[in-house]
Amino acid sequence: MDTFAELNQKQQEAVQAIKGPVLILAGPGSGKTRVITQRVAYLIKVVGINPRRILAVTFTNKAAKEMVERLEKLVSGAVKNLTVGTFHAICAKILRIDGKANGIPMEFVIYDADDQMSVIKRCMQELNLDPKQHIPQAIAAAISNAKSKMVAPADYVKHSRSYFEEVIGRVYERYEKNLFESKALDFDDLLLKTVRLFRKHAEVLARYQERYIHVMVDEFQDTNLVQYELIKQVGEKYRNICVVGDPDQSIYSWRSADLRNILSFEHDYPDAKVILLEQNYRSTKNILETASNVISVNQKRKAKRLWTDNDTGERTMVVEAYTEQEEAQFVVREIEQLVANDKFRLGDFAVMYRTNAQSRVLEEAFIRYGVPYRLVAGTRFYERREVKDVIAYFRLIQNPQDSVSLQRIINVPGRGIGPTTSAKLSVWAQSMGASVYDTLRILVDSKQKKDANAEDIPFNGRAGDALARFSEIMVEFIERSQKTNLVELFDFVLESSNYKQFTLNDPDGAERWENILELRTVAQQYRELSPREALAAFLEGVALVSDVDGYDAMLDRVTLITLHQAKGLEFPVVFIVGVEEKLLPHIRSMDDPDQLEEERRLCYVGITRAKQRLYLLHAFRRTFMGQSAVNPPSRFLEDIPKRLITTPGWSQREETKVSDAVYSWNRVRVDETEGKKEKSLHLPSTDLKAGDRVRHSIFGDGVVVSNKKVKSDNEVTVAFSGQGIKKLLLSLAHLEKI
DNA sequence: GCCTCTGGATTTTTT
DNA sequence: ATCCAGAGGC
Fold first, then answer.
1. Does residue A135 approach strand C to less than 7 Å at its CB?
2. How many Cβ atoms sit within 10 Å of the Cβ of residue A725?
3. Residue A710 CA to B4 C1' — how many Å?
4. Which residue's CA shows the smallest distance to C1' of B12?
5. pLDDT single digits (tens) A679-695
6. Given a cut of 80, is residue A713 above it in pLDDT?
7. Is A724 helix (H, G, I), strand (E, B) or coil?
8. Would you tell me how many other CB atoms lie within 10 Å of the CB of residue A48?
9. Which residues lie closer than 8 Å to A41 by C-beta, 6 or more apart?
10. Residue A130: which nucleotide is closest by CA–C1'?
11. Does the nearest atom of strand C lie within 7 Å of A131's Cβ?
């Protein structure tokens, strides 16, 4: 089905241009993914390149996984030897193996944004900086920015131009020192330290250069300077560098993505072959034209002329609602109608918005009308407290110098080591020039020996005992980690740390515990490795992956998603809501021409996700941060020629005000078609009410006390016989009505 | 050591 | 409106 012959002429050219640098500019829906996979398959099957010698970089783990899956069908077993992954995953692997040459310990841990903030706050404390005067988030962003541009702390300090920059410089230096002592790398470090390693150790770089005959990078428009540098380094020997991207879809400049990379590729590689993929296979002519008109206003842009053989299709529907509630209502109604007419299924629809805050009112409407939906990325699994806590235990086992993890769990569950004791411990550690963990060991040793130095230990009986006890269990964990398999270790740690008990006692215990069990199944995936390797692989996996299962495109539900997250996806019907000044473009981007161009690209990305129907909605009046305001329609709407647009007539508008009862037949319909697939996430919310009897897999039978909406879910309070009252999240708890 | 209260902020978040 | 961090009270 996916064969070479089915590619158009340009695509074939892109697949076969395997000598030297290649820049593929791929418009939306131009079959980019197919080209990339076909190209790899071509290299292996036709050219006879050993898969081991191909490097393919993607931007998400999901994209990497998809690429591997597609390739499996084309070249079967050969994929095993390919290097496919994100920049971060690939760099982590390189540093794990070769980092030692540049002073990076093999057991380093990876700090995420959360851990980073902890370190920054600690640094600021140590430097006596008031977090109210200098906002830690801003400092974190500045440091990350500096790292993305390969500016070292010393350089930063040298070139600081203002008091604020000077402060940042000081925190930056301290921050680096802290990370080093914790044997930790942040996300930016993974890239930066790899580039540095390659610069300093030509022999290491040479090995990778020699190995990778072909280097490919997807989503090149979103790479930053370090990433580009990395590609240049690795690809230098063979110069078979193929980058694929679309400058018009660059929407991550605020994360240091640098559009100049793609714009200057031809400058850096004058012999680069440039291939434009301009035929669109996704959208109708009207949608594509709408998109082109919006994007063509941008000044800093390579001209590109997209075209399609697809039908003209429906006109773009531009809808003005009175309020955001009416806007949401229109969306739901329209979806119900299209589904009722058997034109589409729920999975065909996506509703997109600029800010997460907008999802709320949409959810309320979907719940009210009983239309199943899926909110992409509510609370991320790995950001949940209990998940982070448990991971912290394992990070500490692998690397006891990890101060962030230690701080996190030293008193979780509570073991009598409060802030005072904790602070005292850090001070003592600093005075001895040792890490906190090593200090704990010293404490235990001297306690056991009851030696003469005991008077130096600044802890009286109770605090000292608590610290010693904690230290002892950690030592035991570390010993066991050498020989016990990961899942057994997992269970042991949760039991003996008392974390299991602690969790189950929590009001939200059931939900928390289920998350921990979920994490346990992740740990199970590494059962084939030796204990040491399994632990390392597990930690690396959880550090670099943001979602457990990704999302299931098969699930027949309406998708609610931010414009940013929608990149790379496609839907038969797309609604973009809040197409208003101050929202899209966002108010924070309105005074900077470059940022304004990015907002426009964001709008373009949204529009080009649509295959058959496109709705652009705005509300006359919108409540925003508790304040109601009147926003004019987005300037982007004015760039769409009238001939491409329809606005709904009054009859259609009127209907949105009809009472809920009118839709009840529809709700039943949806229930019937959807119900069996799995216990649906959101449908029962309207059903479960106080007094209902329910059954839970762990707690048994109980009675519903209350059911209230929280964020993207419903919090159901249930009184279980003999188990007490628990608060459960509906989406996770598998409550069965009895 | 835990709980409640208040003040401040609230774009986007592939890793 | 609402969520969160940090301060201060019990």
1. no
2. 12
3. 21
4. A564
5. 233 333 345 666 666 76
6. no
7. strand
8. 7
9. A71, A74, A75
10. C6
11. yes
Q: Strand B closer than 7 Å to the CB of A356? A: yes
3 state SS for A93-117: HHHHHHHHHHCCCCCCEEECHHHHH
Distance CA(A540)–CA(A733), nearest Å, equals 28
A121 touches strand C (CB under 7 A): yes
Considering the entire predicted model, what is its pTM? Answer: 0.84
Whose C1' is closest to the CA of A357: which nucleotide?
Answer: B10
Residue A458 has pLDDT above 70, yes or no: no
**CB-strand contact A5/C, under 7 Å:** no
Q: What pLDDT, in 10s, does the model give residues A274-307?
A: 999 999 999 999 999 999 999 999 998 888 899 9
Q: Which residue has the higher pLDDT, A89 or A649?
A: A89
Question: Does the pLDDT at position A506 exceed 50?
Answer: yes
The encoded tokens of residue A422 equal 């904790």
Q: How long is the CA A512 to C1' B5 vector, in angstroms? A: 27
Residue A218 pLDDT:
95
As a whole number, mean pLDDT of residues A352-374 equals: 93
Span CA (A560) to C1' (B13), Å:
17
DSSP labels, A445-484: HHHHHT-GGGGG----HHHHHHHHHHHHHHHHHHHHHHHS
Q: How far apart are the C-alpha atoms of A375 and A712, rounded to whole Å? A: 7
Tally helices (H) and strands (E) across chain A: 31, 24
* DSSP state for residue A5 in the 8-state scheme: G
CB A258 within 8 A of CB A250: no
Distance CA A573, CA A267 (A): 40
A411 touches strand B (CB under 7 A): yes
What pLDDT digit, counting tens, does each position of A306-357 carry?
999 999 999 999 999 999 999 999 999 999 999 999 889 999 999 999 999 9
Cβ-based contacts (< 7 Å) between A 341-400 and strand C: none
3-class secondary structure, A219: coil
Nearest-CA neighbor of A696 among A729, A738, A736? Answer: A736
State the pLDDT confidence band at A127, using cuts at 50, 70 and 90: confident
Interatomic CA distance for residues A482 and A273, integer angstroms: 52
- Find the Å distance, CA of residue A617 to C1' of nucleotide B15: 32
- Give the 3-state DSSP-derived string for A289-318, with helices as H, strands as E and coil as C: HHHHHHHCCCCCCCCCCCEECCCCCCCEEE
- Does A710 contact strand C, using a CB cutoff of 7 Å? yes
* Residue with the larger pLDDT of the pair A426 and A342: A342
Give the active site residues of A. 32-33, 218-219, 249, 609
Worst-scoring range by mean pLDDT, A122-126, A522-526, A704-708?
A: A704-708
Q: Which nucleotide's C1' sits nearest to the alpha carbon of A131?
A: C6
A420 CB less than 7 Å from any atom of strand C? no
SS3 label, residue A345:
coil
Q: How many Å apart are CA A716 and CA A695, to the nearest integer?
A: 13
- With CA of A88 and C1' of each nucleotide, the nearest comes out as B15
Q: Which pLDDT does position A552 carry in this prediction?
A: 63
**Whether the predicted pLDDT of A675 surpasses 70:** no
Work out the widest C-alpha separation in chain A, in whole angstroms. Answer: 90
